[in-house]
Design a protein that fits this description.
The complex is a heterodimer of chains A (356) and B (176). By secondary structure, chain A is mostly helical. Chain A has helices at residues 7-22, 28-35, 46-68, 75-96, 101-125, 134-150, 153-169, 179-192, 197-217, 222-238, 245-263, 276-299, 303-317, 323-350; strands at residues 3-5, 38-40. Among the domains of chain A are: 1-43, no CATH class; 220-319, no CATH class; 323-356. Chain A has a two-stranded parallel ribbon with strand order 1-2. Helices cover 24% and strands 40% of the residues of chain B. Chain B has 176 residues and is of the alpha+beta class. Chain B has one domain. Chain B has helices spanning 3-31, 69-72, 143-152; strands spanning 33-39, 41-42, 45-46, 50-55, 61-63, 83-91, 94-101, 109-117, 126-130, 135-137, 155-162, 165-173. Classes of the chains: A mainly alpha (356), B alpha+beta (176). Chains A and B meet through α3, α4, α5 and α6 of A and α1, β4, β10 and β12 of B.
């Protein structure tokens, strides 16, 4: 089986091999046999994009039609129309899938939105109270069979997102017990759908969503919640493994970055000390260590860490109106960074332009 | 199993979920006993279900002392997961709270509820119960009309109840 490369990667690789050929490092035959080991991944199809967007637009129209609660049609009639539309688009999708696979698939996507409209219609018909988060659970569960049958990672992704909305919406409502089964199932789905990185990314996100829900449910103090997520983020970022580590590193970096910014707020530390000046001192000490860690990661090429340094600076800039001390703090901080920058640039030059 | 059959199953499952969703509420509407409850109303919007009248029933607020002792043992948000059974009794044309229990009553009209607000500092004597009857969906644009009616006098919520499961079937202005 050929190794798959994206269009841009393939084009870059071909150009580099051409360059090697002109330098006499590889022969034309060798270049050809190397290139034969690789294949371009199929890119996004224009037709697929057009029909999918078309299906989404129609689906959103159906959802809005239900939400309008138009009284020109009885509710039972509306439900019958939803059932018929759901059956109809799926039947048409299946029939077309052999000769027109893209249109067929988009009709199945439309069916998924029509099914969602059916759930909300029933909620409206019977005036279900509360936030109706169960709707998202049922929507998610109902489309999983289609995702499995079609082996369509995008339907599974949508099911994952709906499941995440169900967990997030359950905060302060009924406990989302389904998450105990649902979250592990998302990781199984990742395996089933050819280890799609997109599915792993969202499965991790939903798992974090559930952990956050648990901290809220058991009324874990803000400081401990932020610390838990900070440590989780660090674990995700630094733990060495071969299981799509780049996804864990990306999410870990964002997670400990966001939790770290939260921990720079003095109010969060009030459960450790009631004295405000002590809270400020602890939070500033944390902020210095946190920014230090971010700089160490920037040095290793982490752009996300750079974004969190900017967010932390902005957070402190807007924190106080004591302008003179703030001015001094920022000037001294800025000069230190300029000094560091100069030092690194000198190092880089000394190492012959090696990337730092 | 061939592809055609698995596809039929994948289409049938959502349809079954939709049908199953209607069983309990439809049974309440068709077979349940109708009761009247006093309400207060406003008209917000839901992204997927549209405009509705938000209702707060008088039976939703009860004295803390009415809660069973077993419920008071729980703390924090765990308290919100405990199902409660609120027995109702007629008082004039409306139904009001009679007793609150953790056990399903054998007789009479009762509604299943969850605790939504509890003052842990004992500052207030009342707690808030949720019966999932707090939304009445209306045609877009007609919620304000209902709001004006509610400003003139209290609204009444019509609820069908079957085995503790309530379905809000209508709201109308109170005649007194």
């Amino acid at each position: 089986m050929k190794r798959q490369l994206s269009k841009s990667q393939f084009s870059f690789f071909t150009k580099e091999l051409d360059y090697c050929e002109t330098r006499g490092l590889v022969t034309s035959n060798q270049k050809q046999s190397i290139l034969e080991q690789y294949a371009e991944k199929p890119g996004l199809s224009f037709i697929k994009i057009v029909v999918t967007i078309g299906a989404i637009l129609v689906g959103l129209g159906v959802l809005s039609f239900i939400a309008s609660n138009w009284d020109g049609m009885g509710k039972i009639t509306k439900l019958a129309v939803i059932f018929a539309a759901f059956g109809g688009v799926n039947f048409a999708g299946y029939s077309l899938s052999k000769n027109y696979p893209k249109t067929g698939k988009s009709l199945m996507y439309l069916g998924i939105l029509v099914y969602g409209a059916g759930i909300f219609l029933i909620g409206q018909m019977f005036n279900f109270g509360g936030e109706f988060t169960t709707a998202f659970l049922l929507w998610s569960l109902g489309i999983v069979p289609m995702a499995l049958q079609q082996r369509d990672k995008y339907i599974m992704l949508f099911a994952n997102i709906l499941f995440g909305v169900y967990i997030a919406g359950s905060i302060d409502r009924d406990f989302p017990y389904a998450a105990f089964v649902g979250v592990p199932a998302l990781y199984l789905a990742f395996n089933y759908f050819e280890k799609s990185r997109l599915l792993l990314f969202f499965a991790n996100l939903t798992a974090l969503d559930f952990i956050f829900h648990l901290t809220q449910r058991y009324e874990v103090e803000g400081l401990y919640t932020a610390t838990i997520f900070f440590c989780l983020g660090l674990l995700m970022f630094f733990l060495k493994h071969s299981f799509h580590r780049e996804i864990f590193r990306l999410q870990g970096n964002i997670l400990f970055g966001a939790a770290g910014v939260a921990l720079t707020f003095p109010d969060l530390w009030q459960i450790l000390t009631s004295i405000h000046s002590s809270q400020v001192a602890v939070s500033v000490m944390f902020a210095i260590a946190f920014v230090g860690l971010l700089f160490a990661l920037i040095k290793k090429g982490s752009i996300i860490s750079l974004a969190f340094v900017c967010i932390t600076i902005f957070r402190f800039y807007t924190d106080t109106f004591a302008l003179l001390p703030k001015s001094l703090f920022f000037i001294v901080g800025g000069l230190l960074l300029l000094g560091f920058g100069y030092y690194f640039e000198r190092m880089r030059k000394a190492q012959g332009g090696m990337h730092i | 199993m061939n592809k055609r059959n698995t596809f039929i199953i994948a289409v049938a499952i959502p349809l079954l979920i939709l049908l199953a969703m209607t069983v309990k509420p439809a049974a309440s509407v068709l077979l349940g006993q109708e009761i009247l409850l006093k309400t207060v109303a406003v008209d917000p919007n839901d992204l997927f279900r549209g405009e509705y009248v938000a209702l707060d029933f008088k039976i939703s607020t009860i004295r803390k002392s009415m809660l069973p002792d077993s419920v008071k043992q729980y703390t924090g948000k765990q308290m919100k997961d405990i199902p409660l059974f609120v027995s109702l009794k007629p008082e004039g044309k409306f139904y009001v709270v009679d007793t609150v229990s953790e056990k399903k009553p054998d007789l009479g009209i009762y509604l299943k509820a969850k605790l939504r607000y509890y003052d842990y500092n004992d500052m207030a004597d009342s707690v808030h119960l949720d019966y999932s009857l707090d939304k009445y969906f209306v045609k877009q644009g007609s919620g304000k009309e209902l709001q004006e009616q509610s400003n003139k006098g209290e609204l009444v919520g019509k609820v069908k109840v079957l085995n503790g499961y309530g379905i809000l079937t209508g709201v109308e202005p109170s005649s007194n």
